[in-house]
Amino acid sequence: xAIVFDSISEGxxxxxxxxxxxxxxxxxxxxGASGDFNPIHTIPDKAREAGLEGTIVxxxxxxxxxxxxxxxxxxxxNVVKFGVSFKAITRPGDILxxxxxxxxxxxxxxxxxxxxxxxxxxxxxxxxxxxxATVLAV
Amino acid sequence: xxxxxxxxxxxxxxxxxxxxxxxxxELCAAIGDANPVFTDPQAxxxxxxxxxxxxxTFASLITFCGYPGIWQSMCEMGIDIKRLLHAKEEYxxxxxxxxxxxxxxxxxxxxxxxxxxxxxSFKTTYTRGGxxxxxxxxxxxVPPATK
Lengths: 138, 147
Fold this sequence. Notes:
The complex is a heterodimer.
Chain A: E1 17-18, H1 24-34, H2 44-49, H3 59-74, E2 79-86, E3 96-108, E4 111-122, E5 127-137
Antiparallel strand pairs in A: 1-3, 2-5, 3-4, 4-5
Chain B: E1 11-18, H1 21-31, H2 41-46, H3 58-66, H4 70-76, E2 85-93, E3 102-113, E4 118-128, E5 131-142
Antiparallel strand pairs in B: 1-3, 2-5, 3-4, 4-5
């Protein structure tokens, strides 16, 4: 399950993940699951009151998709750091892909680490979030 | 109401949360992550886990479900929650989180900046039996109101 350190070179791409179109129903499910009931994600009228054209996707759902890609690749227990910056609004109907690259491989205190640069983009190539993860390899 | 900078460095909440298997399943279903390691104890054990681990962004669920007063706390700090934008979310993981874990969480205001673009950063430390399992940092910004 864990990534084999010697099999990785700096610059290697992580296996990318393209998700089905995000739906309004998925945002309702995500709100219920996560407990984030900010209505800008679920109630179109409330989103418009907040100055938006309609509901927008929870940033944490997009980070969750990036997390799916990273944990599917490295194994959830091997991820020691994971962080993102939110860059652009995502709406229902968008198709997202999670991608990444290994930036640096190194050993520290006898443990092997891979630093990865990550992002999620839509079908037009607009970056929605970008981030970093540090994963343990064997 | 302007941001109350006296909150800088202060603890705003402490709560406990018991990790429920069904919340892990719900979060994975909402994300669309079908990896059986999160839902099937047998699959998890085959991968070397004690049980089905929580996915990487589970900390956000712990805070929103374990401390729904987070929005009210932000309001009391003078944050205009109607205008806030989530700028960053960062995690450091120390141990896997499993169903049945009783976690303690403490939320502190890590950084606070007033001015035209207000910023607040919240550091939440999650512990189990006194040992840290996860540290989360959430940074929000409040852009200037449009006239």
